[in-house]
Specification:
The complex is a heterodimer of chains A (about 260) and B (about 260).
Chain A lengths: L1 E7 L12 H10 L4 E6 L8 H13 L5 E6 L7 H11 L4 E4 L11 H13 L2 E5 L22 H7 L5 E4 L7 H8 L4 E4 L8 H8 L5 E2 L11 H8 L4 H19 L2
Parallel strand pairs in A: 1-2, 2-3, 3-4, 4-5, 5-6, 6-7, 7-8
Helix pairs in contact in A: 3-4
Chain B lengths: L2 E5 L9 H14 L4 E4 L11 H15 L6 E3 L1 E3 L4 H13 L5 E4 L11 H9 L3 E5 L14 H10 L5 E4 L5 H8 L5 E4 L9 H9 L4 E2 L9 H9 L5 H22 L5
Parallel strand pairs in B: 1-2, 2-3, 4-5, 5-6, 6-7, 7-8, 8-9
Chain lengths: ~260, ~260
């Protein structure tokens, strides 16, 4: 399986059972995951993003058969373009992971479209973490709203060569936004935060299953949650196989043909 | 053995209670869940009138009617309507197939107005499930927190109570009810955060932790994963996934002649 939503390092508000890389890697492997697209929790609040990405690349290199680093870019920092360049040229990363809400900008910001241009140029997959946790249970001094996705479909239509995956989008995806994104062939979704009984079956009836990807959101979430959702939903083996692996391979090829 | 403490007809496909129940069981079967407890009908009402209570409980009674081998029901009650709620307890629990009560968000459970309902259900040895949540962005006016639950529990120290959702913000909820040994926690209805079950077992002991999903709004899968992935003993997992709920329900099940 290819897991497109994994994090390393420390969640700022509590220790997580698998926040040591070796233990996380062992658990992912035991769950049948043989490739994990991996970002860093440090990217949320640290300002030295270059150091965050260097540590992420080094940590992933120690489990290079499994962990694929996705560096962070904070568009509000000076000279953020150089972080994009380093992700591609210095670390040979396949993608970058954005946290617009933690970095205090919206995707309507012109810097976001500039980032998409640079990502397409560098053949980088772009991930957006729509939210990191339930907004009802956030730390009272760290209340961060979800990323507003309303402008996204129009932006993606004007940037057809960039491939963008939304992580943790479940509860913030209105039917109207989902419908618009379904029409964007360069929009992809994971389902770590998609809920409801038989929920992935429902999602696949509203969004092209060819662009639905496995994401566990480990170690914040229990590693078994997303694979079990696939068992619960009546997808059939062929569709399940697409979701757990083939779709991610297609996305990777689309980003770097 | 997996028994699910916390299921609803809401969020499940189907125009009728029968169809929704059949769909709920279909997905429960896929996850190896042997028994489910359901409460509340549809559409939901935050502050149900006596007529709403009867209507919602009728939907649950209808849903149960073909599934007595797989499902149990709790009667929906509202402490703002004590007489009507007592009548529903008599109708649905004393004289009907239900085996407990569900209290939601009409009135905080720390209010003494709730006491007659707790006392009547306790007389019948029924289970008592109180929704709780601590929302940093603000609770509903009548929505209980786990701290409210602790107040209630201190007034009824010998009555077993279930703290729904573990207070939502489980790191607060577990602490809030820790000293009230008659309170068990329901794991359902929150994100599958790693570490939740470990903290609950560490602070409360495995005997006070009960698996529930909050399906159909939640998936069975994400909620089961909390327990299956937890770094606790197999014995503790067995208690959480079914043993504790069965122990809690056995007195009223035996009174009703049910031997699950």
């Amino acid at each position: 399986m290819i897991d497109t939503n994994v994090y390393l390092s420390r969640w700022p508000c509590r220790r997580l059972p698998l926040d040591e890389t070796a233990a996380l890697a062992d658990t992912l492997r035991a769950a049948g995951i043989n490739q994990a697209w991996t970002g860093s929790f440090d990217a949320l609040l640290h300002k030295d993003i270059a150091a965050v990405n260097s540590r992420l690349a080094a940590a992933c290199a120690k489990a290079a058969d499994l962990l694929v680093p996705f560096g962070a870019v904070n568009l509000t920092l000076p000279d953020w373009l150089d972080d994009v360049r380093r992700c591609r040229e210095q670390h040979n990363m396949r993608g970058i992971r954005l946290h617009p809400n933690y970095h205090d900008y919206t995707i309507a910001d012109p810097r976001f479209t500039e980032l998409l241009d640079r990502a397409a140029e560098h053949q980088l997959i772009v991930q957006i973490a729509v939210r990191m946790e339930d907004d009802r249970t956030q730390h009272p001094l760290l209340r961060v709203p979800a990323v507003d996705l309303a402008p996204l479909s129009a932006i993606l239509k004007s940037h057809p060569t960039v491939q963008l995956e939304l992580l943790n989008s479940g509860r913030d995806m209105t039917p109207a936004v989902l419908r618009l994104l379904a029409e964007c062939p360069n929009a992809w979704l994971d389902f770590a935060m998609s809920e409801g009984v038989g929920g992935i079956g429902q999602l696949s009836s509203q969004f092209p299953f060819e662009r639905i990807l496995l994401g566990t959101y480990a170690p914040m979430f229990s590693v078994e949650s997303s694979p079990l959702k696939l068992e619960e939903s009546e997808l059939g083996n062929a569709l399940r196989e697409r979701v757990i692996r083939a779709n991610a391979e297609t996305l990777a090829r689309a980003a770097r043909p | 053995m997996i028994w699910d403490l916390h299921c609803h007809l809401s969020g499940v496909d189907g125009d009728t209670p029968d169809l929704r129940m059949a769909n709920l069981i279909r997905f429960a079967d896929r996850m190896g869940i042997e028994r489910v407890v359901i409460f509340m009908g549809f559409p939901w009402s935050h502050d149900p009138s006596p007529d709403d209570l009867r209507s919602q409980n009728d939907q649950v009674l209808q849903a149960l009617s073909h599934w007595h081998d797989r499902a149990f029901g709790f009667a929906y009650v509202n402490p703002k309507h004590v007489d009507a709620s007592l009548a529903e307890i008599d109708r649905c629990v004393r004289d009907g197939p239900m085996i407990g009560i569900k209290l939601w968000v009409a009135m905080r459970c720390s209010e003494p107005a709730i006491d007659p309902l707790i006392a009547r259900c306790a007389e019948l040895k029924g289970a008592i499930f109180q929704h709780t949540w601590h929302k940093v962005n603000g609770n509903l006016p009548g929505e209980s927190t786990a701290e409210d639950m602790a107040v209630l529990a201190s007034r009824h120290p010998t009555t077993p109570l279930i703290c729904g959702h573990t207070g939502g913000d489980w790191e607060l909820g577990i602490r809030a009810v820790r000293a009230q040994h008659n309170v068990s926690i329901d794991l359902g209805g929150s994100d599958p955060n790693a570490g939740m079950v470990e903290m609950a077992v560490r602070e409360l002991g495995p005997e006070r932790v009960i698996y529930g999903s909050d399906a159909g709004g939640r998936s069975f899968a994400s909620q089961l994963a909390k327990v299956r992935s937890a770094d606790i003993s197999d014995e503790a997992k067995s208690l959480i996934l079914g043993g504790n709920l069965k122990r809690l329900l056995l007195p009223i099940l035996h009174m009703k002649g049910i031997n699950p």
